[in-house]
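Quick one - first record:
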Amino acid sequence: ANTWTLLPEVTTPSQARKHGNAYASVTTKLGIDNEGLRAWESRMLVNLARQDHDAGMEELHERKFGYRTTPSGELVTSSEYGTRLHAALEEWVNAEMRGHGWKETEWDEAIASIIYEIELVDCYTHTEVQIGSHELRTVGTIDLVFEKDEDTYLADYKTRACNGKPSSKIYDKDRNQLAIEAYMWWKNDWLQFPSDKMPKIMTVVYCTDSGKVHTKVWSDEQLERGITAFCACSIAYDVLNGLDDGSKLRTAYGI
């Protein structure tokens, strides 16, 4: 069976070319379609570097989305906040799947809010699933997989500051990420996952300002658009970074 391994030593397209068998993540490839975000990130990094001359680039990237206060009152970076809540959710679901008791944590209220909004499920089946495709030259991670009403659902958690309105912070890029992961799930029979039909996809947004949660189940039509959007970004990413000779792009446009 194929397995997917994180390569911490490969962080740039140049290193991927030298490695010869390294693929960019789904979110990295989708990032090529977000010029506005890249410009904002550049400005933030410059401003942060001016404020703290001793901070390294990795630390600056951690700070760029600001800080959040955990339920216990600890001030952490936004990315660290999201990482901790993700980990707590994963542990809670894993405990449910094993039938073990859950040890209380500071994230219990947040977890309860998220699980309530997801609503009753038939069963949880997987957490943190790495899934990839040699055809698409990419790898993604699915936060949660569950069964409900005879359908398989892939869910992705997002923690965002949204002034108490989490429904306002769901974007097409969230759809695109889940859509291509659903496609890879459906195609990869070797993973022994249910693949008789395409999974449903759900984005779950937790508002770090208010604790409110909003879920969105994307329609089948939206899922199809998401697959198309990812493929366009993927081809462009590979061509622009010298990871593909452009044959896929020429075929797509009949050139």
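second record:
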Amino acid sequence: IKKEETKALDLIHQVLVSHPDHIKALSMAGRIYQQQNKLEEAVVVYEKVLQRRPADQGTYLVLGRIYWNTNRFSDAERVFELMTDQLPESYAAYYFYGKALAAQGKLDMAEKALLKSLQLEPSLEEPRFELLKIYQSQNQHQKTTHVYQSILTNNPDNIDAAFGLAEHYRKIKKPEASLEILKELGRRIDSDATVVATLFERYLETKRFEEASWVISGMLNTAEHDSDLHYMAGIACNGIDQDDQALSHMLKVRPGS
């Protein structure tokens, strides 16, 4: 493959000697440099492409991501800001611009860019999760609540958002609201044992046995003979001193399971 790439680059360079503005040749060279992990060479070529074709969305995304992945956030900011200028209707431009700004601590500007991305494409979840990082870092509880709720309005099955909102309510001293979400979460994810196990492990780590019991009880409503669930329910009940219930669940665990 390396020999083929070298041959291809030789041919491309021959084309560029006589046609230095050949967009396809420049783009192909950039892709080959990327495949060879020669990112500096790729960057130089992609910058040339944008100079010659300033409205090329694909090149903005590729170049900006190279800068992002190599932690060159100011360069990523520059590229994605240019993208917003050239492609003002591109929600992706404002999303990645916002991420680049946030990575440098420019949170007010990042918020505006991410909100613009949502204005252009209201169904997106990614900008909302980026906004959550900003609002949580600033202890903006009302905005955090609003964003979580907007995610769940568009997608009630988003478990990350549901769990995140429950955690948020717990942190701002609204335990009843947190528990209500966890009860509903337990009911909604009745067939996904992996998710429940993950939640359960988080609760065990923080000794939050009551929340764990709500999640497990929701699962048991539709999987009452599941040995693993009864084992987890037993641990949760034992943690909140419900010894009789803990024993009852443990007796339903199949030997060797």
